[in-house]
């Protein structure tokens, strides 16, 4: 068995911690090792069952702690030369090794040993070296360093000179990394709330060592100490943040929102309020739509004391069954409420007017009264998670306020969108009956991009994980894609001079490439390469001017399927995905969704949803979730970049055919920039009657 | 690694018939590092041996993109072999075979070898398409036929290798013009016998058979 490679996680961890820095993509993979090492440091060292006693007789520079070897259930010890993939991967496996799996009752952790090499030309400056050095010694329960004569903390404080000497002789270190491989929902929630037994122990140990260290510190060290503490804490936060990101992005495959919500609330009495609120804020900000879904069924008729009671009884019985009901039917679950419009009908049993709180609902009037009255009307049965959240007594007012704020915003947006939709005006220059050839290619490309961008930005990345896509933006985008391809074919075949229309479409494709709209670009190329067009050698292709042919070939090669669409992936994610938006040509990258869908399919095929423990307990395969999240994050990255680009444009008052159209991000909490108004002719393209849609697998 | 020939395969069929599962079952045996699961040139590639010749199979799979009706020409272009997959527990996936086949025939060269695969034959109790129906369809359209289970790996090796064998035979017969890369066959960098590994060709099985 090969070890899981370092790279991916390195990139993830890092970019998670730099959410604002859009440039940190998986491109980090290409960073040099030194940098990577500094990025991937998980704070935790496992103490209760594993004690590292270093051995000097290692061959590859790795310390294999003997006590661990004896204890571990799986020890993978691969000879790197064995692998026929002698490449980066091999190099990575030298840096990090899967050492063991730590099996617990409700969780499985992967434990890695990571080699951290200090080279002479290390980029790290002395100060940083000092920090990392200190960090290791300070975790005094794990003696990494017997070979290097670093003393345990508190025993013998070394003076400054001694420390420096040690650094110079310090060639490498090993550090233990611990990552969740699988766990119950309860454990995951405890983890993000810093509430697992291990974390608690760490916390206590840390406090102890801190106090003992402070005792021995002289004044000159105290500055370092404070810096040290912050970097240490940051690392810990990164690890927790990663689990948090992954959990909230992927949990819908296993649980309804109310189940996760109940689990979090249940932990409330045991956790720090700060972390608890942080988690709730994160959830509200990033997935507000979860809170418009129905709350726990049994809650609908009981008062709010129920949850308090449940929480207080938590200590006695480990896991409540109501929150742990495992759901195998992931597809229906996921999509069901992603398309929130279906909620009211699905949960008709507790329908009241206020339940129709859904993003696509037209019942604006019904919604309007809800948020203002919900606090006072807590005697009514809570219906959505938002209602429940607001009605819970022990939740901070700030969280509630925020939730109300989101509700209001949602209401506003719903109102806006309905009014905006009702009188969508036609662009002056476009006659409804205009033939494609009369329209300026750049204008067409802009309009197509506006439509795509609207859909793409409103798309919730996690809906990619669902197999059922009805009523999601993904479905809309796929439908539009197919319609556009069909439109290309029809316009060419219907025209008296098909080659001129072809030239026109190639020109449009060229503009789409400049605007980084890979979705429509691929749709047009797909239309042009459809057999019905492609075979028109004499009437079309032989009549094209050379430059059109060249452009066509260039455009085709971008969206080509060759090598698992490497070219397309590379272009849309690495070259264009994160580069600065040029104001003239682009609104932001719109990717072709297909590659994401394929990647998700492969991951879903490759990994099981659950891992069973020896006792037959089903644990959520968190490794799978982390892999899925990597893909979702790529999409998120492009979305963020596009939004940033649009905001930039707005700031610069770029008014060329831009109108205010704010409804497309109905639930986003941040202020939304505008995208160009879409002329009706283009809307008409994509709003054909169902009868006009191509029959299955045909044009 | 040196190889005598490189064959390009494509896998086609409805959503959920197990295309990606077939591919991963065949190529992922060595437990490639997970990061390379989907990205990279070597994705979906594997070496096999037929008649003492190393053959590299490069398998293209766009599982997950079925809803995009317009599979681009480049997907089909230059494929030497195609696995046309349906799910024996879902009749409709069998009914769609004709459309897929038309698509494939339209976009690819005429000598492409097509293997019809009835997947999920481990789920005998839920079977909706009889084995004989699959055989009849294959006979009618001149395809090779096999029932597989990507889950238990039954017949998966055989499906890929028998297809390769068929292509290989066609090359020997001169049906495939190996100098024309549009046929989906590339000659390896080192075709001279001295450089080839002399492993036995026992992987190349002659006949297709059911697994259940």
From TrEMBL, chain A:
Alphabetical list of InterPro entries matching this protein: Ras-like_GEF, Ras_G-nucl-exch_fac_CS, Ras_GEF_dom_sf, RASGEF_cat_dom, RASGEF_cat_dom_sf
Residue stretches making up the Ras-GEF domain: 440-672
Keywords from the UniProt entry: Guanine-nucleotide releasing factor
Stretches with biased composition (Low complexity): 152-168
Region (Disordered): 147-170, 206-233, 303-327
Keyword Acyltransferase applies: no
Pfam families in UniProt: RasGEF
Name of the featured protein: Ral guanine nucleotide dissociation stimulator-like 1
Name of the encoding gene: RGL1
From TrEMBL, chain B:
PROSITE patterns hit by this protein: RAB (PS51419), RAS (PS51421), RHO (PS51420)
Name of the protein: Ras-related protein Rab-2
Species assigned in the record: Dermatophagoides pteronyssinus (European house dust mite)
Classification via Pfam families: Ras
Family: Belongs to the small GTPase superfamily. Rab family.
GO terms for biological process, alphabetical: protein transport; vesicle-mediated transport
Compartments where located: Endomembrane system; Golgi apparatus
GO CC, alphabetical: Golgi apparatus
């Amino acid at each position: 068995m090969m070890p899981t490679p370092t790279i991916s996680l390195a990139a993830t961890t890092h970019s998670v911690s730099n959410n604002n820095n859009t440039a940190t993509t998986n491109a980090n993979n290409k960073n040099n090792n030194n940098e990577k090492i500094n990025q991937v440091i998980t704070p935790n060292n496992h103490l209760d069952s594993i004690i590292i006693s270093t051995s000097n007789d290692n061959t590859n520079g790795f310390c294999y702690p003997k006590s661990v070897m004896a204890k571990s259930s799986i020890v993978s010890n691969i000879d790197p030369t064995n692998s026929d993939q002698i490449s980066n991967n091999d190099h990575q496996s030298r840096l990090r090794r899967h050492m063991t799996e730590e099996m617990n009752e409700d969780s499985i952790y992967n434990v890695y040993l990571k080699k951290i090499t200090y080279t002479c030309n290390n980029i790290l400056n002395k100060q940083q070296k000092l920090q990392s050095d200190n960090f290791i010694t300070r975790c005094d329960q794990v003696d990494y360093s017997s070979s290097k004569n670093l003393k345990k903390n508190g025993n013998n404080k070394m003076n400054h000179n001694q420390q420096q000497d040690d650094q110079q002789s310090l060639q490498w270190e090993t550090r233990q990394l611990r990552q969740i491989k699988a766990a119950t929902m309860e454990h995951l929630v405890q983890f993000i709330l810093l509430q697992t037994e291990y974390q608690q122990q760490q916390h206590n140990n840390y406090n102890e060592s801190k106090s003992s260290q402070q005792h021995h510190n002289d004044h000159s060290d105290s500055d370092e100490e404070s810096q040290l503490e912050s970097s240490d804490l940051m690392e810990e936060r990164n690890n927790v943040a990663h689990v948090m990101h992954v959990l909230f992005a992927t949990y819908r495959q296993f649980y309804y929102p109310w189940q996760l919500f109940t689990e979090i609330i249940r932990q409330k009495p045991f956790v720090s309020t700060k972390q608890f609120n942080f988690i709730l804020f994160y959830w509200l900000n990033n997935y507000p739509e979860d809170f418009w879904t129905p709350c726990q069924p049994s809650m609908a008729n009981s008062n709010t004391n129920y949850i308090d009671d449940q929480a207080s009884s938590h200590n006695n019985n480990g896991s409540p069954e109501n929150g742990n009901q495992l759901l195998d039917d992931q597809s229906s679950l996921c999509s069901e409420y992603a398309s929130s419009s279906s909620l009211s009908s699905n949960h008709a049993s507790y329908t009241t007017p206020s339940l129709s709180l859904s993003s696509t609902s037209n019942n604006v009037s019904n919604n309007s009264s809800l948020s203002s009255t919900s606090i006072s009307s807590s005697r009514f049965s809570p219906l959505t998670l938002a209602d429940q959240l607001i009605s819970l007594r022990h939740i901070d007012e700030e969280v509630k306020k925020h939730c109300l704020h989101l509700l209001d915003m949602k209401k506003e947006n719903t109102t806006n969108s309905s009014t905006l939709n009702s009188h969508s005006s036609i662009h002056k220059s476009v006659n409804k009956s205009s033939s494609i050839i009369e329209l300026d290619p750049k204008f067409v490309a802009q309009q197509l991009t506006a439509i795509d961008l609207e859909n793409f930005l409103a798309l919730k990345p996690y809906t990619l994980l669902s197999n059922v896509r009805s009523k999601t933006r993904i479905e809309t985008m796929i439908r539009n894609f197919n319609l556009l391809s069909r439109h290309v074919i029809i316009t060419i075949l219907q025209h008296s001079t098909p080659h001129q229309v072809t030239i026109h479409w190639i020109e449009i494709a060229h503009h789409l490439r400049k605007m980084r709209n890979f979705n429509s670009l691929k749709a047009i190329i797909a239309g042009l390469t459809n057999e019905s067009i492609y075979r028109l050698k004499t009437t079309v292709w032989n009549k094209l001017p050379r430059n059109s042919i060249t452009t066509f070939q260039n455009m085709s090669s971008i969206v080509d399927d060759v090598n698992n669409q490497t070219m397309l992936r590379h272009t849309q994610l690495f070259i264009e995905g994160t580069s600065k938006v040029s104001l003239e040509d682009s609104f932001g990258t719109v990717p072709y969704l297909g590659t994401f869908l394929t990647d998700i399919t492969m991951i879903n095929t490759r990994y099981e949803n659950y891992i069973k423990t020896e006792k037959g307990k089903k644990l959520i395969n968190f490794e799978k979730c982390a892999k899925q999240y990597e893909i979702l994050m790529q999409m998120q990255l492009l979305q963020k970049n596009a939004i940033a680009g649009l905001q930039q444009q707005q700031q610069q008052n770029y008014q060329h055919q831009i109108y205010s159209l704010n409804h497309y991000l109905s639930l986003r909490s941040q202020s939304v920039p505008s995208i160009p108004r879409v002329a009706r002719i283009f809307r008409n393209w994509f709003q054909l009657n169902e009868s006009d849609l191509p029959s299955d697998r045909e044009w | 690694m040196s190889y005598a020939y490189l064959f390009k395969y494509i896998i086609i069929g409805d959503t959920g018939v197990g295309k990606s599962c077939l591919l991963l079952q065949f190529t992922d045996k060595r437990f490639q590092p997970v990061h390379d699961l989907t990205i990279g040139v070597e994705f979906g590639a594997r070496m096999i041996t037929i008649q003492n010749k190393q053959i590299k199979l490069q398998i293209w799979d766009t599982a997950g993109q079925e809803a995009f009706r317009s599979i681009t020409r480049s997907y089909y272009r230059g494929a030497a072999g195609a696995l046309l997959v349906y799910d024996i527990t879902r009749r409709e996936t069998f009914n769609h075979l004709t459309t897929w086949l038309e698509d494939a025939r339209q976009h690819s060269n005429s000598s492409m070898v097509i293997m019809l695969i009835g997947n999920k034959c481990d789920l005998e109790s839920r079977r909706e398409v009889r084995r004989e129906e699959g055989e009849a369809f294959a006979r009618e359209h001149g395809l090779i036929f096999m029932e597989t289970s990507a889950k238990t790996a039954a017949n998966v090796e055989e499906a890929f290798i028998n297809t390769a064998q068929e292509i290989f035979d066609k090359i020997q017969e001169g049906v495939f013009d190996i100098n024309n890369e549009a046929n989906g066959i590339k000659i390896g960098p080192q075709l001279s016998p001295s450089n080839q590994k002399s492993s036995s060709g026992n992987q190349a099985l002659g006949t297709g058979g059911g697994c259940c």
